[in-house]
Amino acid sequence: MSTVAGFEGSTVIQFTAIDAQGAMGTGLMIIAVLPPPEAGDFDGDGRISLQDFFLLAEKQGLSDTHLNWNPVFDLDGDSKVDLEDFFRFADIFIANQRSTASP
């Protein structure tokens, strides 16, 4: 999976198919390109919480060779979810808790 920085938006693609007997059918597909979530906010709720930690834990041991691979959980960019990603998540979690704490 690759991304292009700054590219987001949506488009609609219309398909039309005609079979050998002349029957026609159409379909629409909407493709949306969304900005990536904040690192560590795996559930996209705008907060970095224990729920995000549990989502990361479910991905432990996966790599880019697995069918259900999602690079969002690879916080260090080494194409696998391992202990290093948990350490990075801990750093992100602690920094986020400090920045959202009331003075």
Protein model, in words:
This protein has 103 residues and is α+β, with helices and mostly antiparallel strands. The protein has a domain at 50-100. Helices cover 26% and strands 19% of the residues. The chain has two helices and two strands; from the N terminus they run ββαα. The protein has helices spanning 50-58, 83-100, and strands spanning 9-18, 24-33. The chain has a two-stranded antiparallel ribbon with strand order 1-2. A hairpin with a 5-residue loop joins strand 1 and strand 2 (24-33). The radius of gyration is 20 Å and the shape is elongated.
Structural class category: alpha+beta
Biggest β-sheet, characterized?
Answer: 2 strands, antiparallel
Low-pLDDT stretches: none
Helix count equals 2
DSSP, total strands: 2
Radius of gyration: 20 Å
Oligomer: single chain
Rough outline: elongated
Strand coverage percent: 15-25%
Mean pLDDT: 86
Q: How much helicity do the residues have?
A: 25-40%
State the order of secondary-structure elements, H for helix, E for strand.
EEHH
Strand order, biggest sheet? 1-2
| Beginning-to-end CA distance, first to last residue | 41 Å
Task: Name its key features.
alpha+beta, 2 strands, elongated, two-stranded antiparallel ribbon, 103 residues, 19% strand
Nutshell version of this structure?
The protein is an alpha+beta fold and 103 residues long. It has two helices and two strands.
Which secondary structure elements does this structure contain, and how are they paired or packed?
Blueprint: E1 9-18, E2 24-33, H1 50-58, H2 83-100
Antiparallel strand pairs: 1-2
